[in-house]
Specification:
The chain is elongated. The two termini are 24 Å apart. With 161 residues, the protein is α+β, with helices and mostly antiparallel strands.
Length: 161
């Protein structure tokens, strides 16, 4: 992740359809550490596995927090097919983690929750702008370009995406 601030106004260089995947957890019972800590720790190895495999389809991600109980990750994927293939592959880290969560969740009495949302956004359905920022979000996943190449206004960039 670059911290170099780009002082010109830029926009993501994404072309065509994009896939945005949000995945997270919610700690419902703080004292049930044995229930939620394994869920929290499972994501790191998956992200390392995906980041090492350039053919996986993961283009970039950002770890965020929606308050102290809800860590989540925004991911950018090359295609929904690659996202779904990773999720279903029994030879990758996701399937065993999902199986372990389901087994533990039955015993944990709601101590930890998990969630995900997948957005498949067609060309023309997204736009971005970054001013005085390092590459971030969609721009970090796809790279950036000067705003003028897509249009100075958000409405112009939405048409050009």
């Amino acid at each position: 992740m670059s911290t170099h601030v780009i002082t010109e106004r830029r926009t993501a260089a994404a072309e065509g359809e994009i896939v945005v995947f949000h995945i997270g957890m919610r700690v419902n019972k703080w004292r049930a550490v044995r229930s939620w800590l394994p869920v929290f720790k499972a994501m790191g190895p998956m992200l390392k596995e995906l980041s090492r495999d350039k053919e996986s389809g993961l283009l970039g991600f950002r770890v965020l927090f929606a308050g102290p109980r809800v860590p989540y990750i925004v991911q950018y994927w090359e295609s929904k097919e690659k996202l779904l293939a990773y999720a279903a592959d029994s030879g990758k880290k996701h399937r065993p983690a999902w199986t372990a969560y389901n087994k533990a969740a039955r015993k944990a009495g709601g101590a930890v929750g998990i969630w995900h949302e997948t957005y498949v956004v067609p060309a023309g359905g997204y736009e971005s702008i970054y001013g005085n920022m390092p590459e971030f979000g969609l721009g970090a996943a796809y790279g950036t370009q000067p705003v003028g190449r897509r249009g100075e206004r958000a409405a112009d960039r939405l048409k050009a995406a």
